[in-house]
Amino acid sequence: MIAAAIILAILIVGGALIYILDNGGRRKENTSTQEPTNNENETGESAENEVCCGMHITCEKDSLSTAASTEIIYYEDEELDAYANRSGEDYTQEEIEQFRDILLTLLPEDIAGWARSLQLRHIPLPPEVSDELLLIVREARDKSR
After folding, report:
1. Based on the structure, what is the number of domains in the chain?
2. Orientation of helix 57-65 relative to helix 127-144, angle to 10°
3. How far apart (Å, rounded) are the C-alpha atoms in residues 52 and 71?
4. Would residue 88 count as lying in a domain?
5. For labeling, which of 73, 99, 119, 141 is most exposed (least CB within 10 Å)?
6. pLDDT (tens digit, 9 = 90+) per residue, 43-56?
7. What is the spatial distance between Cα 71 and Cα 28, in angstroms, rounded to a whole number?
8. Same domain for 61 and 5?
């Protein structure tokens, strides 16, 4: 009986500690997103230390140009490796449709990762598909507000 009481007390104290730590982290996130500070640039993004969530157009472009993740993840798109080191301007209409089909079949949470994967594989998006990708990211960001 005493052992059960000790285990119960440990669980209650542990749960309370986890709750306090989790709640403190949420408060910190909420205060950082409420009002811009003087250290933020003109797009509303924080200076260097803020991690990109992948849902903002500007940080999406920044995260694609930085080495945030160097792991190449394939999204059942291995056939796109044939377009590596090519100019994004000289795709045929069939090739553009191939990119578009893959983009439109991705889950919304996979789109930013797919774009990073293409960049790491040196596969430029056709301009039309790139515009569609940015539009999808913008719509997802607006829905999450």
Report:
1. 2
2. 130
3. 17
4. yes
5. 73
6. 444 444 445 555 45
7. 30
8. no
